[in-house]
Amino acid sequence: MSDLRKAGNRPVRASPWIGAAFLSIAILVVAGCDKKNTSVSAQANGGGAPSNPTPAATTIQVDGSIDKWLTKTPAWDNGPAPADQSPQDIHIGKVFFDNDEHYLYVFLQCSPTIADRYKLTQDSGDIGGIFFDPDNNPDTGSPPESSGASPDARGYKTKLYLSIGVFAGTSGGGTFVGYDMFRFTGQHLDDNNGFNAEIPDAYETSMHPNQQIAAGKDGVEMAIPLDVLGLKPGTTARIMIEPSEPGSHSGFTKYQCH
User: Fold this and answer.
1) Among residues 8, 58, 55, 51, which one has the least CA distance to residue 31?
2) What one-character DSSP code corresponds to residue 192?
3) Contact (CB, 8 A) for 213 and 62
4) In 3-state terms, what secondary structure has residue 21?
5) Taking the mean position of all CA atoms in its chain, how far away is CA 100?
6) Rounded to whole angstroms, what are the CA distances from 245 to 47, 90, 175, 250?
7) Phi/psi of residue 220, each to 5°?
8) pTM of the entire predicted model
């Protein structure tokens, strides 16, 4: 049994996969109190298979382990977690990207891990957002969120929002991660800085049996469809990583698809 909650002004919708895979779940609480007023999204349909088409197979194992990334250079390195970090917060350290013909793979090194955070808090929360500019043109797309923002903090077309959920039921509880994606519309900039068009079927949770996102021993890893991002081999995208951790700064990088 799942329920429909409110997160800020956006609905939190319980995952359709929960009915099939977690029949014992009595309550599902999806993270939704972030400063951007967004939420992990999934359509409730009474259980059964997800409504979106069967995804292409991944060629990189999505398991939240950093081991396979250690031979690569991080696209962004945010350094170690601060000594006074709150147990509620997730510090994003190293960030890696790779791709195949179907997906952009992203690995975020997290401190603490999602499982360790759950042991401390038993609470939902936020990891942050990743912004993509697939045409590598800062003069088109979103404006900076504030007058003092970096000149690189503009021109993005797609936002991926990462959050942490918790669940409880007769057989116990646990935690999961999910992503939801939004396009920049250029309208209502007071609503999510214009990232207010949710992309249909562009959501994943680690409770999905064919998961394209996972929280593991070193962090969070995901596979994002290239066509959703507007990317293809040979294109270069500007990327902004915006951690939710208080006091953190945004990271800027570029990635060329091969």
Assistant:
1) 8
2) G
3) yes
4) helix
5) 19
6) 34, 6, 19, 10
7) -115, 135
8) 0.80
Kind plus residue range of the DSSP H or E element containing 224: strand 219-225
Residue ranges of the alpha helices (H) in the chain?
17-21, 114-121, 226-229
pLDDT in tens, 106-162: 999 999 999 999 999 999 999 999 999 999 999 999 999 877 789 899 999 999 999
22 alpha carbon, distance to own chain's centre: 22
- Tokens 């049994």 belong to 1
Q: How far apart are CA 173 and CA 251, in angstroms?
A: 34
Q: 3-state SS of the chain: helix, strand, coil percent to 5?
A: 10, 40, 55
Helices H / strands E in the chain, number of each: 3, 14
SS3 155: coil
Torsion-angle region of 219 (φ positive above 0: left; ψ -120 to 50: alpha; else: beta) = left
